[in-house]
Write a structure and sequence with these properties.
TIM Barrel
């Protein structure tokens, strides 16, 4: 979708927008299911990047300590526990600028992926920038989806990060799709952006070819010690719901994921997000460095709403998996 179309969609009366989003959701997602994902930080802190929202940057004085890459056996144990707890997708994040083929740490990651992929779960990784060869090897090792958020609009991006460019993000996504992996790509609300920035972000995402397999919508969790730790107003709940609805309309076949910031949402707020088109959550007690609603509370809410956990993909016909990313 193009910006003007997205803006007209966003600016509809609230109930008209929800009605449209719900119709799109019911057309493409006929089962009352929500995907349960578990996110594990396999290498925390010490990142050389300067993303102004991130607790893991080595440039900021936060409470997050730098840690080494977790042992494969420990990661496998966490993945098995996540599967037993109902998660169907296991996401592994590492606080690096990127990974490079031929290095010890990349070889270790590939071994970890091979082990986790044998558990019958979808395997997602977020490791920073990728080249074509790294993407190919991750795909061969068993990665089904790669997360690489664009965070905000191309115009606002330089205000958030200076150590890489918006085009660098798009290049990684291009390599991921060329390798045949699905793309998980969304953004963060509350970075000091305006509504037009949010819609420009969705414009870029919705024009990927193919569109992403999943679109995480994050709300900033301010981290003391980071540049955005105390300088940004919280995003209004109705603006979050509107963004969920527009994402559902713009990327109809994607899983729209309630991500960071869900810990601050009431059950009623989450329910409106599900109604507007969200059908995926991070599930468990912790995201990369921030808290998350308790698993029992999540399952209880889904039961109240008559929703069931979504099964993992069992074949290669996943949305967002293709040979080419359209140019922008």
């Amino acid at each position: 979708m193009q910006f003007e179309q997205l803006k007209r969609t966003y600016e509809q009366p609230f109930f008209d927008l929800l009605k449209q989003a719900r119709a799109v959701h019911e057309e493409h997602w006929t089962d009352n299911e929500v995907q349960l994902c578990t996110l594990l930080s396999i290498k925390t802190g010490g990142c050389s990047e300067d993303c102004s929202y991130c607790a893991q940057s080595a440039r900021y004085n936060t409470e997050v300590d730098s840690e080494r890459l977790m042992e494969r056996c420990d990661i496998l144990e966490r993945a098995k526990a996540a599967r037993e707890n109902g998660s169907t997708r296991f996401c592994m994040g590492a606080a690096w600028k990127g990974v490079r083929d031929g290095t010890k740490r990349f070889d270790e990651v590939l071994e970890i992926v091979r082990s986790v992929s044998k558990l019958g779960m979808e395997v997602c990784t977020t490791l920073g920038e990728l080249g074509a060869e790294e993407a190919k090897k991750l795909k061969e090792a068993g990665v089904t989806a790669y997360n690489h958020n664009i965070d905000t609009s191309p115009e606002h991006y330089p205000e958030i990060v200076s150590t890489h460019s918006f085009e660098d993000r798009l290049n990684t996504i291009r390599h991921v799709q060329d390798a045949g992996m699905s793309v998980c790509c969304g953004g963060i609300l509350g970075l000091g952006e305006n509504t037009d920035d949010r819609l420009r972000m969705l414009e870029v995402i919705s024009n990927f070819n193919p569109q992403p397999e999943s679109v995480p919508i994050n709300s900033l969790v301010p981290i003391p010690g980071t540049p955005l730790g105390d300088s940004v107003e919280p995003v209004d709940n109705f603006e979050i719901i509107r963004m969920i609805a527009v994402a559902r309309i713009a990327v109809p076949k994607a899983k729209v994921r309630l991500s960071a910031g869900r810990n601050a949402m009431s059950e009623e707020m989450q329910t409106l997000c599900f109604f507007a088109g969200a059908n995926s959550i991070f599930y468990g007690d912790k995201l990369l460095t921030t808290t998350n609603p308790q698993s029992e509370a999540d399952l209880a809410l889904l039961e109240k709403l008559g929703l069931a956990p979504q099964a993992p993909y069992t074949n290669q016909d996943r949305p967002g998996q293709s040979a080419e990313l359209a140019s922008h």
